[in-house]
Amino acid sequence: MSATNLSDLDNDIYLSIIHNKTYWTSLAVLGFILAIAITAGNSMLLYTIYKDPRKSLRSAPGFLITNLSVADLLLGLLNLSIVAVRDVYRSQLINMPFLGILKAFMYIVFMTTLFVSCNTIIVMSATCYVAINQPLEYKTIVTTKRIKICIAVLWIMGLGTCLLPVAGLSQQTFVMIYLHTHATIPAILLTVIYVKVFRAVARRTRELQQSGYDKVATKSLERERNMVVVVIIILALFYITYMPQYITIHLLYFCNSCQQSVTFHEIDVALSRFVYLSSAINPFVYAWRVPKYRKP
Predict the structure, then answer these.
(1) pTM above the 0.70 mark?
(2) Residue from 97, 117, 104, 116 nearest 78 by CA
């Protein structure tokens, strides 16, 4: 969702800028493909968690994975599917019916789910650090009750960010807050967390080598290493897919020539669709890297 879409809800500003029907048709097709992939992949993951006979997927980390999957599912089902339909109307160079209401709805879903996804990854990273650095205290520190409270707080805060424009903030100020709370600050936090995680892994490995072979401790460390890899892959996907829009939105506000360029706006809109890629890929990362998510 581009920054310019947050204003003038009753008009589709891009229809007055981009008149290429083939361009909009291509984006519509891509949107429907991604929406189907996101909905199907995350629905299957949630079904697997729900039907797990051993309830082993309902641990504290499991709830975080479920939360991330729910956010991804809502993004595909309630945001991207509408975006794709809007692109169909754009391909005919006409406004979508009920555009104002739908744009406001898409904006709320997009902002909330992106906030929840980003911060869920931060919490997942923090739990990985605790599991590696304090394995004996892990179950008393990271409890399902605390994780559930954390998840509830994330959704409340995510919805709260949508109300900032009502407080009288200018669009540019709001978009800058949105960018830096969803990307810059989390990137700094995650860098610090993962420096600590890798140091903790190195320390635990040395301790195991010095104390001799311990099958249980070694297996536990290997499991946590694998989970760290999963979170890093998900984190990398999130930032790789989010970074193009992060760059184009800054250019939109601070590059005068870009604002006047049709080509720039075409690139901006196309790159905004990259944000959805990680939501489509995440379920397959779990199936690939975490064996218990592959078990029937």
Answers:
(1) yes
(2) 104
